[in-house]
Recover the amino acids of this structure.
């Protein structure tokens, strides 16, 4: 019961930790996790299958590779013809490395792992033992992490422990809940402010020049980065204007609503801006005259608490000015 209370307190602390400032994934991040496992024991004949609650802490050396230290409490029941069933408990410490697939900001990141661990079991005074059994293991495993927010995740995985003492294997299925903080991976540097092309200096005898302007506002469906057919005409108008004034350039700015993690929205807004740029290039504008940048959900123009407001914020904007003589 004491162990269950301790594990419950650890899980509660992990959830509460998500309220302390902005946390991040990727290189430099620290992950803390509480987990529970079911073990199928094959390395000791008299041990029945057991359970293994524990905790771990890891550090991301890169956006994909982490080093993790783990502690778990092993609990088994041993069957013995002379002494009957006995409760067997022990401590298990491990050090392993995980490689994560995908990129920082993905909702689900599969992983593989490998490492070494050491276990110490008590109450094993039988079969030639004298009260404590110490063993070293090689560990391998795989699983996936589901990032519910930028800093809170759940994990499910399987592990296999190879016991060096006798060459046998134990197997585990694990679930866990954790938080991560302090990372710098996946952060996008602010884009440079748009710079308008300088208007040509008119000759002294020329009449007063008139500034002409074309603006673009393309809307997108939820979680999509595909330019809808009803927006092609607006994009073509901008392309025709830029072909009429070949010295002009433009910055295509992508935006999202506030649904989803910051890192995911940043990537989605960039894809939207890139999609509009591709249509402009297809319509005859040179790619080096169009700069695309995503701002995620940082620049709303409407209230994100309503459906209409979120629809207005799922957009790409662009503006071009030129001087007509």
């Amino acid at each position: 019961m004491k162990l269950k209370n301790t594990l419950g307190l650890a899980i509660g602390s992990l959830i509460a930790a998500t309220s302390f400032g902005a946390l991040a994934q990727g290189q430099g991040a620290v992950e803390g996790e509480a987990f529970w496992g079911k073990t199928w024991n094959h390395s000791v004949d008299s041990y029945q299958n057991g359970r293994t609650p524990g905790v771990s802490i890891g550090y991301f050396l890169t956006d994909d590779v982490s080093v993790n230290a783990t502690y778990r409490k092993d609990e088994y029941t041993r069957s013995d013809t002379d002494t009957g069933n006995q409760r067997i408990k022990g401590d298990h410490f491990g050090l392993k490395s995980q490689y994560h697939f995908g990129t920082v900001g993905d909702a689900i990141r599969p992983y593989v792992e490998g490492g070494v661990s050491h276990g110490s079991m008590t109450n094993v005074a039988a079969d030639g033992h004298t009260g404590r059994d110490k063993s070293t293991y090689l560990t391998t495993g795989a699983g996936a992490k589901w990032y519910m927010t930028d800093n809170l995740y759940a994990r499910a995985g399987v592990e296999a422990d190879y016991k060096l003492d006798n060459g046998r294997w134990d197997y585990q299925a694990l679930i866990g809940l954790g938080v991560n903080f302090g990372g710098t991976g996946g952060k996008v540097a602010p884009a440079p402010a748009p710079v308008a092309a300088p208007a040509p200096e008119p000759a002294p005898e020329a009449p007063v020049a008139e500034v002409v302007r074309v603006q673009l506002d393309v809307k997108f469906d939820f979680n999509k980065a595909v330019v809808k057919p009803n927006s092609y005409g607006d994009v073509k108008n901008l392309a025709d204007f830029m072909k009429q004034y070949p010295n002009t350039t433009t910055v295509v700015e992508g935006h999202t609503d506030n649904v989803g993690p910051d890192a995911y929205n940043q990537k989605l807004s960039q894809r939207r801006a890139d999609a509009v740029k591709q249509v402009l290039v297809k319509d005859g504008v040179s790619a080096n005259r169009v700069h695309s940048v995503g701002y995620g959900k940082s620049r709303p123009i409407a209230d994100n608490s309503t459906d209409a407001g979120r629809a207005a914020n799922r957009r790409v904007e662009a503006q071009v000015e030129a001087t007509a003589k």
The chain has two domains: 2-181, 210-324. Confidence is low (pLDDT under 50) at residues 1-11, 13-23. Residues 262-282 form the longest helix (21 residues). The longest strand covers residues 132-147.
